[in-house]
Structures are given as structure tokens and as C-alpha cells.
What does this fold into?
Amino acid sequence: MSHILSSMLDRDLLLQTAELYACGADRRDKALWRTVLAEDCVIEGPGFASRGLDNCLSAIDTLTQMFRATQHRVHQQVAVIDGDRATGETYCIAEHLLHDQDSVLVWTIRYQDEWRREATGWCFTRRQLILDWTETRAVEVPK
It folds into this structure.
């Protein structure tokens, strides 16, 4: 495979890790997260840090406790690939349906990402969540 095709495939696979991460969060699917998180992964953000796969997976439990539902939309991604490692930035809008009211808390996120190619594919070794701004708005929730 040519270098250009290989690079295009890797970029697509890196974006797919972010998309699967988002789906796993929204579905509360730890098995899906296991496919995209390395054993030594670190997930950090404002006021939290999880180190190691088991601790990172517990973030899904925290989402369930904090919100009725979430919906993450992955937007653009810029990545630099260096052999079996990559670094980049992934944009995301995350909407969190609050438990006690018909409102959503919207986060505008930029993830600073690090990946490693493993036998199973590309996995996050680090995700740092940078929160650019938040918004809370009323929504209608079907009963």
C-alpha cells in the first residue's frame, strides 16, 4: 500500500476511535470503550483525571449518575501520525440531558488526543478535554 493510502487509512481509523468513544459514552457501553482505550490510558478534564483502563471505564458510571442521557457529536479532527503513535485535536459538541429538569447542558469541547497503534488497532493513550464554553437550554422531552 502506498504511503499516501496508508496515511489516509490511519487518519480515518483515528477519527473512528473518536466516533466510537462518543457512541460508547452515549450508549453507556464499556465494551465499546475497551476497543478504543489503551490499558494505560489517561482521560483528563476540568476537575477530573482518570488513569488506567478500569478507572477510565468508570467514567461511564459517572455519566449515568449525572445525566439522563448524552449525545456527543464528533466534528473535525487534525492528527499527526508518527509511525505507531499519533497526536491531534478532536472537536466535539456534547449535550447532557439533566436529571431534574427538561434542560440540556451543552459542552463545546476540544480534545487533545494521543493514540498508539496496538494489535487491535488505534487506541487512545490520552484524552485531555478542553471545555471552550457551556450553554444550558430548555428542551422538550417526549414522555
Notes: The longest helix spans residues 3-27. The radius of gyration is 16 Å. The chain has a mean pLDDT of 96.
